Structure formats: structure tokens, C-alpha cells
Amino acid sequence: MMNQNVIVSDRKAILGSKTITVSNSPLFSSPPTYFTFPRHKFLELLEAADKNSNSINKNNLGAGKIASWVDSMRDSSPTRLRPSSRDSVSDNDHKTSWIVRFPSALNMFDEIVNAAKGKQIVMFLDYDGTLSPIVEDPDKAYITHEMREVVKNVALNFPTAIVTGRSIDKVRGFVKLDEIYYAGSHGMDIEGPTSEYAYGGESNQGVLFQPAREFVPTIEKVYKILEEKTKWIPGAMVENNKFCLSVHFRRVDEKRWTGLAEQVKSVLIDYPQLKLTQGRKVLEIRPTIKWDKGQALNFLLKSLGFEKSGDVVPVYIGDDRTDEDAFKVLRERGQGFGILVSKVPKETNASYSLQDPSQVNEFLRRLVEWKRKTVGEA
């Protein structure tokens, strides 16, 4: 039986790290002080209830369904953790307890690299909110020169992939690097590095995998319809990511979110082969195939020859709900670790945290320095 004052680190299953003991701390009393019923599960139940309701048909989306999406739109992704009504811990203590569970990857850097000694690190990086800051205009989410250089150095020392909801053409235009793998459209469009200087000397690999090619005509059709349907909503922007669509509402007045959600839902009723999910201030429209960033991570590891290797340490850094699929895969594999980029406590399957792209930059820079030092000592 576990003593209620001893917390097993969430990193243990992946890195085999030690337990963290907290004596006489009200923060870690049993049962947990957080809701064990995630918000996204609650929203799924609302969706299911609406689907089963006889009062909902093609011309009636259901107030509960739209309300649930608008409520979800107010939350960033992944959902923030909230204390239960029984919890009297202050917000500051709440954040402290979260940091204990998901410590800074910078503070735990030595633990991370010690776990990677003698193994191959493979880097996976989200783009928006991870390599670039979240900005009002998605078309202006530029990467800094400094970040570009550090990502290039990472790619020269480790197999490296950018896994993003953006189209490959869009994110490549931002990053401007040929040494890395690109997995666009949430991993539904994967290309290998084209530079002879890529890690391992591989080049001109071109397209590796496109599991949703048959959906492209439908995606293009829905894109045109949504552009027409949302043009009257100031600030709304529909982005065609080739194999999926993004409806950005970061610049939309919150009073208009309900109208925007209604328009998107009304269009998708006629396209059951597409599904609606939510990212960070964006509604994502994707094919209903079983493919996400986690599947893309597994595919790339297999392509690199690490599918069943015990000597690989995949590292995935991301800030969004869609990155949780990759974090979950790492936990299921029992290898590597996820790093959530967030300044606030959120539900996550990651093992560590960083606050913003500047900390991501610092972590990547230190990782390159560690690798060069390790090679020099060999």
C-alpha cells in the first residue's frame, strides 16, 4: 500500500526516475484534489446525448451541442486543471503541485540526458506555440533566426521532425530548413529531409506517407463553403492545410463564437467523413481516419528503424491538445518523454514542462551542447 504522503513521479514509467516524497503536505492528500473526470470526456458525453436526442435533426444542431463547443472554445488546449469544490488549496499552491508533477525540463535536464546516455534521441517538435509564439494572425507566426539556427543544429545531431497541424508548404515556408522531417496536417502528410546534410546523410526522400489523400477533394470543397459561410464574421479565418482545415477564431469577438460554431457545425452535417476537434484558439476539421500526431510519431520511428528498438529516446515538445496524442503514445511505448509548453497548469500526458518558446530554445541549445560534448569525450 502506498503511503498517502508519497507521490510516485509521473515520469517513473518512462524514465525510471525516483519517487518524490512530500511530508505532511495537504497538497497531496488522498483522494486526489483534482477532478478525475476530464472536461473533454464531459464534452463527449454532451455530444453523445445530442446525437441520441430525437429532437435533433439536420436542421437543428442542438443548443447543448453548440453551447458545449463554445464553452470548449473558451478554454485553451489542453484543458486547465481545476481544483474540486473540496479543495481549499490556493491557486499558487495549485500551480506548485502541478510543477512537482510536471517539472521544468530545464531544471531536470541532467535527469533527461542521463536517461538518454548510450541511446538515440529522436526529436519531435510542434510549431505554433512551441517554436514560434502564438500570434493574432496565423500567417505571421514567424520563427526567429535564433530558433531556426538551434533547430538546424538539433537536426544535425539528432533525427528531427516538426509535427504540426499546418500544411507542409506553410510550415516549411516559416522554418526554411531542409535537414528535417515535416509532418503536416496533424501527421497526415509526411516528407523526409531533402538536404545532404541531414542527420544520417539521407537526402531527397520526398513524400513518405499521405494516409488521407482520398479526402483532398472533400477538404477543398468544404474549405470553399466555409470561406463563404464565415466571411461575415470579423476576424474569422479558414486555413487549408491540404489534408485538414483550421478555422481560426483568435481574432473573433467572443460574442460571435456561437455564430461561428453554428456555421461550422451546419456545414459538417453534410460531410460525415469529416470530424471537428479543437486546438488552441482554432477549430480543426479532419478526416475521420484513425490518424493523429501520435500515429505520425510511431510511423516516423518505424521509418527510422526504431520501431522495436530499446535504445531510442523519442522527445516530443508541444503546447496543444493535438500534441497530447503524441504524449500518450510515448507513455504507452514506455520510452522517451513528452514536454508540454505552457505557463499554466493543464491536464497532460507529458512528463515535463517548459513555459514558452524561449525556454524551448534554451532546452534545445543545451541538448546540442550536451551531444557535442558527449561525442568529444568518446
From TrEMBL:
One GO MF term attached to the UniProt entry: trehalose-phosphatase activity
Pathway assigned to this chain's UniProt record: Glycan biosynthesis; trehalose biosynthesis
Cofactor: a divalent metal cation
Reaction equations catalysed: alpha,alpha-trehalose 6-phosphate + H2O = alpha,alpha-trehalose + phosphate
Enzyme Commission number(s) from the entry: 3.1.3.12
Gene3D superfamilies reported for this sequence: HAD superfamily/HAD-like, Trehalose-6-phosphate phosphatase related protein, domain 2
Record-linked SUPFAM superfamilies: HAD-like (SSF56784)
Enzymatic class: hydrolase
GO BP annotation list: trehalose biosynthetic process
Keywords per UniProt: Hydrolase, Stress response
Function: Removes the phosphate from trehalose 6-phosphate to produce free trehalose. Trehalose accumulation in plant may improve abiotic stress tolerance.
Family note: Belongs to the trehalose phosphatase family.
Stored PANTHER family: TREHALOSE 6-PHOSPHATE PHOSPHATASE, TREHALOSE-PHOSPHATE PHOSPHATASE B
UniProt-recorded name of the protein: Trehalose 6-phosphate phosphatase
Phylogenetic classification of the source organism: Eukaryota, Viridiplantae, Streptophyta, Embryophyta, Tracheophyta
